[in-house]
Design goal:
2 copies of one chain form a homodimer. With 333 residues, the first copy, chain A, is α+β, with helices and mostly antiparallel strands. The longest helix of chain A has 16 residues. Chains A and B meet through strand 1, strand 2, strand 4 and strand 5 of A and strand 1, strand 2, strand 4 and strand 5 of B.
Chain lengths: 333, 333
């Protein structure tokens, strides 16, 4: 297997300390490659970067007609959220309208990602619930799919359940590739994740951005989901999160979503381009530097957007005493 | 620059998710290579993996004759400790014998590495001090060097200070290479770190293990430091830490020390071999899998040691709900 190129590195003083390899592709809905590096055909797990694709199942099963998901609830279905109050409220709101509760979520409980939210819970002497799980919005959306399908909600997270079969089918339709049991794992939130080429995920995001190659109903669903995510970027991640900052700065032009283990996906909506990126070693900060460099290259940022992205493309590394001693930086291709 | 080989990877389900490249060398004091992979001449920052080399400065300046460092204090000088009570006590004990206090430490304060120690501090409503810094033992030792040299203690962490010049000189003597300002950075604890080839660090550890190539006084100092570290492995890291577990299991045969950003160094004392390893991307779990595989290969572990190392060479990856969904594993060379 050929080595992917070095796309990010950390420095310390005047020397390079760590090197991060990876691959990315920016592509249009016809499959025309705008920019690429590394092996974009090697199947990778997209993890949470494709939550907006998974959320298409809500529309495929007309759950939205039955439960009238708000734009906020759709944004949260696309989210790996910080576990802040606003996220917990939107998730529990949908659950209660479904006649369900936190006990029906199968994602498991973990501490809020956001430090202030963690500290607030701790100050209350409270333990985190499944609602604080970064995936609680996605899971609530999946529960609405189970109800719309008229199948038992219990076990909805498992690979064999009708909900996950439906989720798999909408992803396959969007990425234009069969997803295989031979390249399948379980995500941190207990649902299946299927590996496929970066090229396929990127093209899927281009299709969602344009509607090209999608059935009209799915094209409309994709537009609603991208509108929801870019209108409510604080719900897709949260306070201070890079995805939220990028979507806020791009004012609807960019849908950006990270995934665990160094995946970054999204779409430059006005261009009709999708993108997908994976840092080979799974580093989240390195993948952020890489995707910032990608957007600087192809997204035609204005001055404010450029300043934001440059900050992610050059992240300071500090000593315990707070002095800058190096940086994580994107490597020019 | 050629890519180093993949030495560890993570799986999820039935597919590889992340890949970690790196280099390592096992070498004797004459420079004869026992085992190696990747580019062992590329200069890397050793970070905390060479604290036992840095601690030689205590002996080079006869601070040990003036302050009679206990074996525990010498072990803590070689440590990146967990910030548990035992570590804080040994560091503050030496400081008070020096007529100094926590206020003289220039490493900065951070939360204890050990989760139980963090929780205990929090339960007391206390903030961490510089004594909880993983490097407080090393810094206390460096303060003893400053006093023995008759120089001001203030600023002892800076590159230009006489203490750091002395530390640099003992490292150069042991690794047999000049350390260059052209490949120098500042470590997390504010002292300088110099990049040099893995081969040089590994050979330095072989020299410390055997005394070969060292002046008699330094050979004796190296033996005392390795004895201290392997006799008190709980002080070199702490409860549940891999370094502590490895040194405990090997009953004095192995001196093992991790460094930040994926460095692992040590010596197989009875063989007279030193080793040094760097994971290119800086992953600590990946570097642990790599060094476990290295020790399985060359250290002739008994059944208990083998079982321990196999656990580090195959670390489970779990979902939020606690199910094993993959593993970090060493890749056979």
């Amino acid at each position: 297997m050929d080595a992917n190129p070095i796309l990010a590195e950390t420095t310390r003083g005047n020397w390079v300390e760590n090197r991060h390899r990876g691959a990315y592709v920016v592509i249009d809905s016809d499959g025309r490659i705008i920019a690429a590096a590394g092996d974009i055909e090697r199947p990778v797990f997209p993890r949470s970067s494709i939550k907006s694709m998974q959320a298409l199942a809500i529309f495929a099963r007309h759950a939205h007609e039955q439960f009238h998901h708000s734009q906020q609830e759709l944004a949260l279905a696309c989210a790996s959220h910080n576990g802040e109050d606003m996220h917990v409220e939107v998730a529990s709101g949908l659950l209660s309208r479904l006649g369900l509760s936190e006990a029906d979520l199968e994602c498991g409980a973990h501490q809020p990602i956001n430090a202030a939210a963690r500290a607030a819970l701790r100050a209350e002497g409270a333990k985190p619930s499944s609602l604080h799980n970064a995936c609680s919005g996605k899971h609530s959306g999946m529960l609405s799919v189970a109800l719309a399908m008229g199948v038992p909600t219990a076990g909805y997270a498992s690979r064999e359940h009708a909900v996950q079969q439906q989720v798999r089918a909408v992803i396959e339709a969007v990425v234009g590739e069969p997803l295989s049991e031979a390249k399948c794992g379980t995500d941190g939130c207990s649902i299946p994740t299927y590996a496929a080429p970066l090229r396929a995920f990127a093209r899927g995001f281009a299709r969602m951005a344009t509607g090209n190659g999608l059935l009209p109903e799915m094209a409309s669903a994709a537009e609603r989901l991208f509108d929801a995510a870019t209108t409510h970027p604080h719900l897709v991640a949260g306070t201070g999160h890079p995805d939220t900052q990028i979507m806020t700065a791009f004012k609807g032009r960019v849908m950006q979503k990270y995934g665990a283990d160094g995946v970054q996906c999204g779409a430059i909506r006005d261009k009709g381009w999708g993108y997908a990126l994976k840092c080979d070693d799974g580093s989240l900060p390195a993948s952020l530097a890489m995707v910032a460099a990608l957007l600087l290259d192809v997204a035609e940022p204005d001055a404010d957007q450029r300043a934001l992205l440059e900050g992610f493309a050059h992240q300071p590394i500090k000593s315990v005493r707070g002095a800058q001693v190096g940086e994580m930086r994107a490597v020019a291709r």
